């Protein structure tokens, strides 16, 4: 079977699940993963016929896609902010919204370039995508990343090695941690705290696609309807006691709770509080400064 026919098969079998452009994107991810071929190589030779072994592998991937397993979990990796990350069902798949959060931090970092190296803390690191990307883009920074899940930390450690950065990983519960300590039990103040904590309310499950709901870890996604800002409250309290004066707190947030987030941060005494919209015009990020 030629690549052109395989591409048509992807469109036919996945058209009720994904938009046409997304199906094309998935097809080319599979093409690269199985055959090490690019879009350009496909366009130059759509009649190329993979081997029987390669066809079996492609068919197996398509079967999983039909059952709405995310392509990132199927092939075991994804791209985030120009870097490659290993992923499995123990961690969330990094998303475009989180890339926007990284971009927000790096733009602000331009104001700090003449200052001393920064201490950065990523709370609820998951795959490590935030911590690792910041370590790559903020030279001489010291980056610590915490998560309650040991399995998630195993993935994050693998990604740190894969991307050749040094991260201090700790297994910690966001809802219980009071201070960040080094090996000598010395409390370290930090310049930047960033978090993309669980923020999807139980009531919003009906809006979640099966490829997320059935495969990605609930622990990293959902909060109760009665206390949807529980993680933001805990992290903000931690930040009050652990940020340096002048330090910044950054969040990815629930698009429906922007006003509540602003009120929470104002009530905690933060200054320069701002809720920022994503590329789709949704309240998606928050930043605040400790002064």
Brief overview, please?
The chain has helices at residues 3-14, 20-35, 39-44, 52-66, 71-75, 96-109, 129-137, 150-162, 210-213, 230-242, 258-267; strands at 77-80, 83-86, 119-123, 142-147, 168-171, 190-195, 200-201, 222-223, 243-252, 271-277, 283-289. With 291 residues, the protein is α/β, with parallel strands linked by helices.
**Unreliable segments (pLDDT under 50, ≥5 consecutive)?**
none
CATH class category name of the largest domain? Alpha Beta
The CATH homologous superfamily of the largest domain is termed Vaccinia Virus protein VP39
Strand order within the widest beta sheet: 5-4-3-6-9-11-10
Rg value: 21 Å
N→C terminal distance: 64 Å
Mean pLDDT: 94
Number of domain units:
2
Walk me through what this model shows:
With 291 residues, the chain is α/β, with parallel strands linked by helices. It folds into two domains: 65 residues; 212 residues, Vaccinia Virus protein VP39 (Rossmann fold, 3-Layer(aba) Sandwich), CATH 3.40.50.150. It is 40% helix and 20% strand. It has eleven helices and eleven strands. It has a seven-stranded mixed beta sheet, with helices on both faces. A two-stranded antiparallel sheet has the order 1-2. A two-stranded parallel ribbon has the order 7-8. A hairpin with a 5-residue loop joins strand 10 and strand 11. Helix 2 runs antiparallel to helix 4. The longest helix has 16 residues. The radius of gyration is 21 Å and the shape is elongated. The termini are far apart. 33% of the residues are buried.
